[in-house]
Amino acid sequence: MALCLFIAGEVSAQYYPQRPRRVMRRPPPQRYERRPYNDFYRPSFGVAVGANFSNTVDSYNADFSTSTIAGWHVGLTANFPVSRSFAFAPELLFSQKGYKAETVDGTFKQRTNYIDIPLLAKFRVVPGFNFLIGPQLTFQTSTRNIYEDGFNRIVETEYDNNGDKSIIAGVIGVGIDLTRNVELRARYNIDLDRNRTNGASLLPDYRNQVFQLGLGFKFD
């Protein structure tokens, strides 16, 4: 009887194989793609503020040499996406420019205020780094001339209320996204036409060149 029971058990074990145990597996966690800082998918607006370091170039007078003076700029910015890596970036800025010159009569300094309208093409080179280039419309609003000879200081201020002193300039620059909403800006712009002075002035016609360094704050 024991031998029969042993044989029956072996046959039963071979006929009814053991089923593997089902193991419940947890679904993998969902991964969300982090959006890059420089978001080209939605329009954005913002403000910009920074410093100007301006001088003149190509004054058409070999005896007229100038040095750099500091100023500032502030204004509104916008970003309108066109494709994944290209956007149209117009701006409206108040910008101070000018120069300083050492003459035989003393020191002459000119500081000129402008309304600048850059119309820039913005290219995303890599996430967080942008390259900008384009034209700029420049409208002169006022000029302040300061003469100093070591004894006297003369200040003359002129206002251009007609807005007829306009210049076309060129702009090139880069932008580095420090965070999603804060950008480090570096620009260089130069007048493409001469800034013509008063015909009775002893100062020659000149072109402004400006290095700009500042911060941009974007709001989606």
Structure commentary:
The chain is mainly beta. It has one helix at residues 2-15, and strands at residues 44-57, 69-83, 86-103, 106-126, 129-148, 153-159, 166-177, 182-191, 207-219. Strands 1-2-3-4-5-7-8-9 form an 8-stranded antiparallel β-barrel. Strand 2 (69-83) and strand 3 form a beta hairpin. It is elongated. The N and C termini lie far apart (87 Å). The mean pLDDT is 81.
Mean pLDDT: 81
Number of helices: 1
Shape: elongated
Helix content range: under 10%
Biggest sheet details: 8 strands, antiparallel, barrel
Structural class comes to: mainly beta
Summary of the model, kept short:
The chain is mainly beta and 220 residues long.
